[in-house]
Structures are given as C-alpha cells and as structure tokens.
Amino acid sequence: MKKRFFTILFLLMCWTSYADLSSGSLPAGNAASEPAKPAASEKAVIAYQRVTVAPGDTLLSITERINENQQSIEKVLKDFAVLNPSVDPNHLQIGKTYAFPSYDKADDSSAASTP
C-alpha cells in the first residue's frame, strides 16, 4: 500500500513540475514583464551619478550628499529601483558602485564648468 501511495505521489509531483515548467503557474507571469518596458524608458529620463558605497553610507545619505535639492523618500526609492533593478536599497554593499538619482543635474554641470 505504501509503494502505491509513494508512486502516485511521485507521478503527481512529476506532472505538476512538467505543467509548471511548460506553461508557468503564475497567471500574471506575462504581465509582470510588460511594466519593465516603461521602466527602461524612465531610466533614460532620470539623471544619475555613479557612486561607490563607503562604510556607513546609505541610499539617503548618498542622495543628500550629491543633491542640493531634497526629494521625498518615496521618489528616491522609486528612482533608485529604476536605475538599479534587482538591487535592494536597504542592503547596499560597501565597495560596489551604484547609480544614484541626481535631481539637480543642471546645477552640477554649471558648477563643474565654473573654475
């Protein structure tokens, strides 16, 4: 009796694995990949500056350091996520370089051109 039970359980697991791999189990699987296209177009619009993270740096501390104008935390988080997909802003790694949103890009370029 145990052999039949485990055989049926094994066949059920094989069938569900095959169904999941062939068609996917998430109904919104295709819809999740569609919003990535607008994010790519947003990336071109958001000005950014590449910064290497030092010990003690956070997303907000670096953003405040490179920008004169203060932005809302939600906007900074959203823009950072667009610029750095698959990076958790709460777990930045020391020594790695990330793209941080630069909100006063015009001010930085004019300040850089003055001696």
Characterise the protein shown here.
This protein is mostly helical and 115 residues long. The chain contains six helices and two strands, in the order H-H-H-E-H-H-E-H. It has two domains: 34 residues; 71 residues, Membrane-bound Lytic Murein Transglycosylase D, Chain A (Roll). A two-stranded antiparallel ribbon has the order 1-2. The chain is elongated, with a radius of gyration of 23 Å. The protein starts with a helix and ends with a helix. The C terminus is likely disordered.
Features:
Membrane-bound Lytic Murein Transglycosylase D, Chain A, two-stranded antiparallel ribbon, mainly alpha, 115 residues, LysM, 57% helix
Give the overall pLDDT as a whole number.
77
**Which range does the strand content fall in?**
5-15%
Please bin the fraction of helical residues: 55-70%
Lateral strand order in the biggest sheet: 1-2
The best one-word shape is: elongated
The CATH superfamily of the largest domain bears the name: LysM domain
CATH class of the largest domain: Alpha Beta
Tell me what the CATH architecture of the largest domain is.
Roll
Give the helices and strands as they follow along the chain: HHHEHHEH
Within the CATH hierarchy, at the fold level, what is the topology of the largest domain?
Membrane-bound Lytic Murein Transglycosylase D, Chain A
Distance between the termini: 87 Å
Q: Taking Cα atoms only, what radius of gyration do you get, to the nearest Å?
A: 23 Å
SS class: mainly alpha
Total individual domains: 2
Instruction: Please mark out the parts with pLDDT under 50 across 5 or more consecutive residues, or reply none.
Output: 29-41, 106-115
Count of extended strands: 2
- Biggest sheet architecture: 2 strands, antiparallel
Provide a count of the helices.
Answer: 6
